[in-house]
Amino acid sequence: YTVTSNADEYFTISYSKNPSSGDIETQQRVTMTVKINTNDLYKLPAGDYTINVKVKSNNDNDQVENFEYIVGIEEEADLLFENLDSDKTVDPGEFVQYTLKVTNEGNALESVSISLTSDEFSKYGELIVNQGKATERRGSKLDIDVDYSESVLVVYNVTANKRDIEDSAYEEFNEDIDVQSSIDSAERESISITTSINEKDYGLNVNL
């Protein structure tokens, strides 16, 4: 900004709560640069913000100039993915449930993708989500809308199919669950869940 005056002057230039002041002599020109610290804007919702800058004469209150700058805040992805339960044990033929929590710590609406990724054990698991009045959805992969600063709970259901357990040497199910951002493909979080299988004696059935 360039400030000129035809008389000795004391002026103030300000934005937000941090004014700067200075003296200017007759016919003197002073150039000032206003720097906006983007740290002040950290974690604001993505979008455009107007920064108002005012130059005011301290000798004449009617001498005021106003300027506007548009500062754009880009979308930033930041996800937190948690398992709210400890590892569990399941009886053959039964099921257990885990509660997972996805938190959007970024600054924009996310449509996150959450999926079971174990090739061997995913067939025993299922993700379940029910957001608001939406119909309950189930599957091995789900897309979930999570607004900034909000969280969504997802149920991970593990079923120990009795026949599969009898025909295999499984002692536990190990599942990796991923959640990925729609804003930034590099933003991905993963958790591992181990479900132990109780040993059970199915007995012998002998026909004579």
- Please, what is the average pLDDT? 79
Query: Cα distance, first to last residue?
Result: 103 Å
Please give the count of helices: 1
Shape: rod-shaped
Short descriptors:
single chain; 208 residues; mainly beta; 5-stranded antiparallel sheet; 5-stranded mixed sheet; 1 helix; 16 strands; rod-shaped; disordered C terminus
Give a short summary of the structure.
The protein is mainly β. Helices cover 2% and strands 50% of the residues.
Q: Could you describe the 3D structure shown?
A:
- There is one protein chain.
- With 208 residues, the chain is an all-beta fold.
- It has 1 helix and 16 strands.
- The strands form 4 sheets. Strands 7-9-14-11-12 form a 5-stranded antiparallel beta sheet, with no helix packed on it.
- A hairpin with a 5-residue loop joins strand 2 (9-14) and strand 3 (20-24).
- It is rod-shaped.
- It starts with a strand and ends in an 11-residue tail after the last strand.
- 16% of the residues are buried.
